[in-house]
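User: Please predict the structure of the protein below. I'd like the answer in structure-token form so I can feed it into my own downstream comparison script.

Assistant: Understood. Taking the following sequence of 200 residues as input:
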Amino acid sequence: MIQIKAGTKTVIKNSYFFGYGSLVNRESHKFAGAVPAQLGGWQRVWRHTNLRPVAYLTVVPDPEAVIDGLIAPVPDSDWPALDLREAAYVRTPVAHQVRHTLPHMPEIAVYTIPEGHHAAPTQTHPILLSYLDVVVKGYMQEFGAEGVQRFFDTTHGWEAPILNDRAKPLYPRHQSLSAQEHAETDQHLDRLGISPIAAP
């Protein structure tokens, strides 16, 4: 947390993060005070890293791209706790690229996998359907059906294999979803011509 003296008044600027995947789902974390926002200059994409056995979302620089997400304050600027959750990523400052409705201008960081440390998902490093479900649920809650469609349309890498692990979720922060919530994910995968592969 940064304190700036403005005359006799102390103005407090919080540190915020921009979430664009599972962090959009408020049930996946305990960060209060989150608000919808848009990040420009970064493209959301499915990738995998040797630090994790499955594929996750990251963002890569793209001057033409704009993606939806949430920004939320990091309590007491305790970045180490969030860094631990996002262990495969590095923090990058993006305050100048984020549009939001906050009355102040906080510092904002986004987590991204560094160039050269990630690759396209493979059969041995698939996208988990249980993870995707959590992400889609978050976008539905925050941005509605149109926001879910924007999520699918503005995310690259859908040629990746998707493992249907709903029966025995492998994602550690998986959630119980209704049939309707599962259907929201499934209809967009169908629209994109994607058929999840059965879990072994």
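That's the full token string. The longest helix spans residues 129-153.
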